[in-house]
Design brief:
single chain, mainly alpha
């Protein structure tokens, strides 16, 4: 949810003209949210979620807000910590996945860790693992810049789609096929939605004017004719005879 809110703020900064449309969508969303909050299913889910957060906060002796912040950044901190502890060549690809645990122990379990960056460092080692993580970070930044360029052209759909897949593309557990498929599919939709940018650019460009065609073609002669009559364009008749 916070990623979608952040993407909407970026849209409003880069494209202020979308403010009126955003206000309309926000009003409709608030009305639907108020209606949804009155349903028993929403109340039950909210109670379960709040109870879980309160229990975790009490067990860790931290506030709920501090627990949420720690939960959001714990995967990155743990991964950077294990970067210096992992073997140079790692423990082997697939060891930290559920499938790898099933093959090695007979039980579906995480043998290394649940965090994506931590698993990559422990499986591939600090050199190859760090190179792979940096590639994912660069991919997220590159696609994000492309989506922001689309917002400047008036196309906000790529950024809204990418806001849903950016975090999973950055640190999602690619050992699970569902998370990997969601990241690839939604990011592909965001890139495909940029096809509207080319149409808008072509409509805004003025039509190309044809190049000016010379009215008279330059006179061309063969080498023999040039030696006989002189260079092309030179007047050939002076006193009724050919200039030689």
């Amino acid at each position: 949810m916070r990623h979608r809110v952040g993407s909407l703020l970026v849209v409003l900064v880069l494209r202020p003209a979308a403010l009126n449309r955003f206000a309309q969508v926000l009003i409709v969303t608030l009305i639907c949210g108020v209606i949804l909050m009155k349903t028993p299913i929403f109340k039950e889910g909210l109670n379960v979620l709040s109870t879980r957060f309160n229990e975790v906060a009490e067990s860790s002796e931290k506030s709920m807000s501090a627990g949420l912040i720690e939960r959001a950044f714990s995967d990155f901190g743990e991964g950077l910590f294990l970067l210096t502890k992992a073997p140079f060549l790692g423990y082997g690809l697939g060891v930290g996945t559920n499938a790898g645990g099933k093959f090695l122990t007979g039980n579906s379990m995480f043998l290394l860790t649940e965090g994506e960056w931590s698993r990559v460092f422990l499986e591939s080692g600090p050199v190859l693992g760090l190179a792979y993580v940096l590639w994912r970070v660069g991919l997220v930044l590159y696609v994000g810049l492309l989506c922001m360029q689309s917002v400047r052209l008036g196309n906000v759909l790529p950024l809204l789609l990418f806001s849903s897949s950016s975090l999973t593309l950055l640190s999602g557990q690619f050992g699970q096929p569902t998370i990997l498929g969601f990241s690839v599919f939604v990011t592909g939709l965001a890139l495909a939605a940029r096809s509207q940018d080319w149409a808008s650019v072509e409509e805004s460009d003025p039509p190309a004017t044809p190049a000016a065609v010379p009215l008279h073609r330059p006179m061309r002669r063969s080498a023999y004719a040039s030696r006989l009559h002189g260079p092309a364009g030179r007047p050939e008749h002076t006193n009724g005879s050919v200039d030689r």
